[in-house]
Amino acid sequence: MWIRNTSRHPDEEVRAGVLFAVQDIDMRRVCVNVKNGALGGAAYNGVPEISNAPRAARYLVTLRLGRGRERWPLGPINYHFKSPDETGPRNRFPFFVCRDWQEWLVKLAAHEAMHIQQFRSGAVCSELACERFALERLELWRAAQAAAAEPYEQLAFGLGPAAAPIGSPASRPRRAALPAARIPTPPEHAV
Asked: Model pTM?
């Protein structure tokens, strides 16, 4: 997988979000372009001739993270950007809220990655299945973010090892493990 970030967001954070979103999906020979633009994305079963994807790429994913004027949190909305009061009883798409651009990136990358899996397996492309998968992945992202932040919050608010005697091993702050996805890799190298 190649991840090419031309968005205004830091490469390391974009890479971490994409890698989290697509774990457990075969992303070999997929070029993922992350850029600014109206919120949205696309997965291509093949690579258009005008693409800047590497020649070895077999699939292309484009993720647009916004123009910089988005008001977060976004939602509740569904896949069609409709709020609950704008949909009727036949709406089948789940509603979601994205708190920031990183949650949008994870949700969007997971949705488009599921399309890649559908292309590879010859399955019918189902927007509903992709959206459900994406929202499951978003919930996992939120849980991982909360777990990573917990030790720091405990120390900041005095909820951690403050009761332990000073100098004891329990009184020493522990470092939270950083996700492996934070290791930068040049954008042209496959993951």
From this structure: 0.79
Give the closest residue to 18 by CA, choosing from 8, 38, 4, 39: 4
Closest C-alpha to 77, from 126, 117, 36, 131? 131
58 and 32 in contact (C-beta within 8 Å)?
no
DSSP state letters, 95-148: PEEE-SHHHHHHHHHHHHHHHHHHHHHT----HHHHHHHHHHHHHHHHHHHHHH
- Bridge partners, residue 40, by sequence: 64
So what's the pLDDT on residue 65?
A: 98
The predicted structure's pLDDT at residue 181: 44
Domain ranges for the chain = 2-66+101-159
**Could you tell me which residues are beta bridge partners of residue 77?**
96
Any idea which fold 2-66+101-159 has? Collagenase (Catalytic Domain) (3.40.390)
